[in-house]
Amino acid sequence: MFEELKNRPADSLLALIKAFQADERAGKIDLGVGVYRDAMGRTPVMRAVKAAEQFLLETQDSKKYLGPEGDLQFVRLLQPIVFGKSPTFGQRLVGIQTPGGSGALRLGAELIQTANPTAKVLLGTPSWPNHAPIFGSARLAVKEYPFLDLTSQQVKFESVIEALSSADPGDVVLLHGCCHNPTGIDFTTEEWRQIAELLVARKLMPFIDLAYQGLGDGLEHDAAPTRMILETVDEALIAYSCDKNFGLYRERVGALYAMARTADDIGKAESNMAALARVNWSMPPDHGAAIVRTILESAEMSAMWRAELEEMCERVNGNRAALAAAAPDLAFISRQRGLFSNLAMSRETAAALRARHGIYMADSGRMNLAGMQPADAGAIITALRAEGCL
Ligand code: PMP
């Protein structure tokens, strides 16, 4: 049987990790893999997470099954952080714990496939490389449209308007809630408002991917577009990841929320989400969600977490400011948000940056701003100039 399979290309970011480790040059800089790094280049376990793990170690008295919905107290406690304290749409939301934001996207895709198999998913590109395959493997048609121009680092808003205006009622629009991956370019408030209007006018359903809340301009600010959209539309899906803002990556912590029109629809969405979870992973892994729940149940641990997340956010924005200050042609980097910016470059140039200068970024030109120190700005800019990127 297996001879029928075709080999798949290796993950180029994982190859980048190995190449960086093997590089013996002292001044090498890793802007490759998409995880937060502190000033020492580490991706530490957050202090609040350690405190919650300690608490769980001492107090958890059973590991019996919870069910396909996972830890519903985790799902409920996350709600005010994502959607605000008492949103008007709050009564119309239902959520389920998922294995990371990826699990939430997959479950949402299957829910769409179950409810409306002919729906197309509109995806602005470039996007996170896993978006199109996740929707495609749930047998949904993905319609890509150019979201922005990398050379000018500007959103092609007319292309967004055109894509939404020519979509069919019931189609789904994938939107990055904040901190766009891979570009760091988010819509302006006015652009979000126009998108909300078009979603209503064209009867389209937003599927908001919120994977970096708190890593752009703070928890409240980063959630504002999501909340505005939910105040405007009737139905929506939200894939949430706690893997970045709690630093829980490998624990796989996320949630899928659905906002429905009526109590009857909420019940249907809920039972279908649970049934789809059951055939995919039966039940989500508990530990990471239990950590987040424990933090959110404790005022003290929550304060620790918020302070640490703010530190992370400030560090990334400080690196953005350092690059922009050192090269006026990179001023756009200080206006972008989240871990990533994506320079327009060929894969040959990305390879030359590695080989000649020890600066590692994805072949696409995506760089992780958490991978540098402010003092590295000069070396990065010298290398970019030498390779003709500036
Ligand atoms: N959406 C986006 C935009 C992402 O960048 C990522 C992770 N890189 C995810 C979703 C998935 O997150 P998780 O690791 O929680 O599955």
UniProtKB/TrEMBL annotation:
Keywords for the protein's UniProt record, in alphabetical order: Aminotransferase, Transferase
EC numbers: 2.6.1.-
The keyword Transferase is annotated on this UniProt entry: yes
Protein name stated in the entry: Amino acid aminotransferase
